[in-house]
Amino acid sequence: MLPEHTQESRADLGAAAVQEMARYGIQCAQINHFFYGGFRYTNLKDAIAEAQRHPLKA
Questions:
Q1: Pick from 9, 26, 33, 35: most CB atoms within 10 A?
Q2: Do 40 and 33 contact (CB within 8 A), yes or no?
């Protein structure tokens, strides 16, 4: 289980999907994405490291 896991989700899954999830014990976790320089990162430290290596020109 993820440390940030909660029993609630902001995703609009619909009642039927929520019931199926409960039936099978399926859990949902939200994932943060960080965008920099046209790329997507799931780890903020990686995005910051890339920004430090390749700063965008203003």
A1: 9
A2: yes
AA identity, residue 35: F
Phi, psi of 2, deg, nearest 5: -75, 145
Q: What are phi and psi of 51, to 5 degrees?
A: -65, -35
Residue-wise pLDDT for 1-58, tens only, equals 444 445 555 567 899 999 999 999 999 888 999 999 999 999 999 999 999 999 998 7
Entry pTM: 0.58
Tokens of 34: 């960080």
Q: Which helix (H) or strand (E) holds 51?
A: helix 44-53
Q: Please state, in angstroms and rounded to a whole number, the distance separating the CA atoms of residues 58 and 55.
A: 9
